[in-house]
Amino acid sequence: MKIGNIDLGERPVFLAPMEDVTDMAFRLLCKRFGADMVYTEFVSADALIRSVDRTQQKLVVADEERPVAIQIYGRDVASMVEAARICEAAHPDVLDINFGCPVKRVAGKGAGAGMLRNIPLMLDITREVVRAVCIPVTVKTRLGWDADHRIIVDLAEQLQDCGIAALTIHGRTRAQMYTGEADWTLIGAVKENPRMHIPIIGNGDVTSAETCAERFEQYGVDGIMIGRASFGRPWIFREVKHFLRTGEPLPPKSFHWYLEVLKQQVRDSVTRLDERRGILHIRRHLAATPLFKGIPDFRQTRVAMLRADTIDELFAIMDAIPAQFHLE
């Protein structure tokens, strides 16, 4: 699969762009475990143009994480074009346009998935952003606004005609948010459309190596994007790439090995921010990680981890888990 001149190999697997998740430290960790391409947190075009510090910091990418995409969102042509040019100056490999974020503060203002209610404007933005930059432009969107407007098959052709280099489709409508099951049948229909010639990347509910392989086989997509399943589990890319290569599950590592990966996430988060904010940032991963699921009577320890205020306190709790619960 290629995006522009970027060769991503066969059946590439990507880390999805996620706000407050895909900072550089997490991207580098996922890259280390086999993610073929990573995406920044999404960048507000309006905030970027206003030179908001926190937004500008999202444009910083490292050579070690390449190929890397910066994702932007906005609600008018002029600001999106200006933001696209600013992003290009940060030298990402790909510029991605977010037409899929369903949260109210984005979609409710007409940006993100809100563009699914204004297709002419979506297409104008896409066409002008493609014209404004020299790097490949891609789009990430959803099936449609709601169950009565699942327009992705026709929309995909229209976006392709605007000049995008690849299309990522999340298998839900905006109305679904993240509820219910992702419907991959329409993603497959886009891929099967003989008029489509750009790569199609599927996204939604890919939570295991086996599921990833099944989605490739059943729907013929060119690539797959993993989002929430990476929370507290950056090693999922290692598992997926091994299964795609061999057809066999990757033998598990020791509990200590996985625990050390989570501790590295904590260290990276604290280094990037500071102790207080770094620990707050990483709590989402500690709460979601599958490493602690199924451990009997673990609730009190989980609560203690999520209440820890210092790295020493948090690591003391984490280091005691193997002996406390007799884990190898």
Task: Note down, in words, how this protein is organized.
There is one protein chain. The chain has helices at residues 24-32, 45-49, 53-57, 77-89, 104-107, 119-132, 152-161, 185-192, 209-219, 236-246, 255-272, 275-288, 299-307, 311-324; strands at 2-3, 6-7, 13-15, 37-44, 68-73, 94-99, 137-142, 166-170, 200-203, 223-226. The strands form two sheets. Strands 3-4-5-6-7-8-9-10 form an eight-stranded parallel β-barrel, surrounded by seven helices. The chain has a two-stranded antiparallel sheet with strand order 1-2. It is α/β, with parallel strands linked by helices. Helix content is 44%, strand content 14%. It has 14 helices and ten strands. The protein folds into two domains: 2-246, TIM Barrel (Alpha-Beta Barrel); 255-324. The N and C termini lie far apart (40 Å). The chain is globular. The mean pLDDT is 96.
Tell me the CATH architecture of the largest domain: Alpha-Beta Barrel
Strand order of the largest sheet: 3-4-5-6-7-8-9-10
Secondary-structure class: alpha/beta
**CATH hierarchy, class of the largest domain:** Alpha Beta
Q: Total helix count? A: 14
Number of separate domains: 2
Rg, Cα atoms, Å = 20 Å
Poorly predicted runs are none
**Proportion of β residues?**
5-15%
CATH superfamily of the largest domain: Aldolase class I
Overall mean pLDDT stands at 96
